[in-house]
Amino acid sequence: MLDWALLGGAAALAGALNSVAGGGSFLTLPALALMGVPLVSANATGTAALLPGYLAGTWALRRELSEPMSPSLVRLGVLSVLGGAAGAALLLSTSNQVFGRIVPWLLLAATQLFVIGPKLVRRRADTAKQRRLWIADLGIVAVAIYGGYFNGGLGILLLAVLGTLGQTDMGRMNGIKNFVSAILTLIAVAIYAASGAIVWTHALWMAVGATLGGYVGGTAARRLKPGMVRGFVVLTGLAMTGAFFLNAR
Q1: pLDDT at position 23, please?
Q2: Can you say whether the dihedral through the CA atoms of 167, 18, 54, 96 is positive or negative?
Q3: Is 21 helix (H, G, I), strand (E, B) or coil?
Q4: How many helices (H) and strands (E) are present in the chain, helices listed first?
Q5: What is the pTM of this model?
Q6: In the chain, helix, strand, coil percent, each to 5?
Q7: Distance between CA 244 and CA 221 in Å, rounded?
Q8: Rounded to an integer, what is the distance from CA 96 to the centroid of its chain?
Q9: What is the 3-state secondary structure (H, E, C) of 97-119?
Q10: What phi and psi values does residue 117 have, to the nearest 5 degrees?
Q11: Cα 11 to chain centroid, rounded
Q12: Which UniProt keywords are listed (predicted)?
């Protein structure tokens, strides 16, 4: 019962964090690893558990996606599928031993993204008109590959890349971010599932917790100070990074 409570609690808090600031994988991956799930499978299972939150977030901001945009949603969807599939295939080709050595660095990089993220987003418009579409395409594919391989810090990366496309409205940017995240995660989870990398009993239980946490977090977002939430995410990321570095020694 304690194990299930740990997984459910971690997933609920992860869903709440993702709905407010991101960083949910900082909690789901360690929780699953603590349960004895191999790291590659833990990463795949945690990603599957958070998928409903991405889908719900996309639906919630569907109005922001209703107007024409460049690149189009179809183009973004294709790029997301290509990148997400490549990232998932790369993860599945990585051994648990190698991934265990990579995870602390990925967590550290994701934590640093949360620290510098606001600066990246604020600078988005400075060079937006100087970027060519194909460069933006490469940026979306690169971020989708990262997301298919490891989900931490994905939202910040997407917002930064969307800025190079000339997007300035945060509502629309968040809608596009959720859409791209949902598509690349959907294809990645499909590939994980086909390979048998997902522990479905854990994933389904955590998906319930993440969905509930996402709803609560979304309703509480209006009352929470973004700086405090981001600070909690950064501290959590640093703590988990330190724990994985110690474990990798």
Answers
A1: 72
A2: positive
A3: coil
A4: 10, 0
A5: 0.80
A6: 80, 0, 20
A7: 30
A8: 20
A9: HHHHHHHHHHHHHHHHHHHHHHH
A10: -50, -50
A11: 13
A12: Cell membrane, Membrane, Transmembrane, Transmembrane helix, Transport
Cα separation of the two ends of the chain: 31
CA-nearest of 146, 145, 44 to 85 is 145
Q: Which amino acid is at 124?
A: R
What is the block-wise mean pLDDT of the chain (249 residues), using blocks of 10 residues?
Answer: 87 78 78 91 92 80 74 87 96 91 83 67 50 73 91 76 68 80 93 96 92 74 63 74 70
Instruction: With CA atoms as reference, report the closest residue to 19 among 44, 63, 53, 52.
Output: 53
Query: Going by C-beta distance under 8 Å and a sequence separation of 6 or more, which residues neighbour residue 55?
Result: 182, 186
Contact 80, 158 (CB under 8 A): no
46, two tokens: 């945690």
How far is CA 93 from its chain centroid? Answer: 20
Closest CA to 210 of 1, 29, 7: 7
- Residue 104 is encoded by which pair of tokens? 């602390």
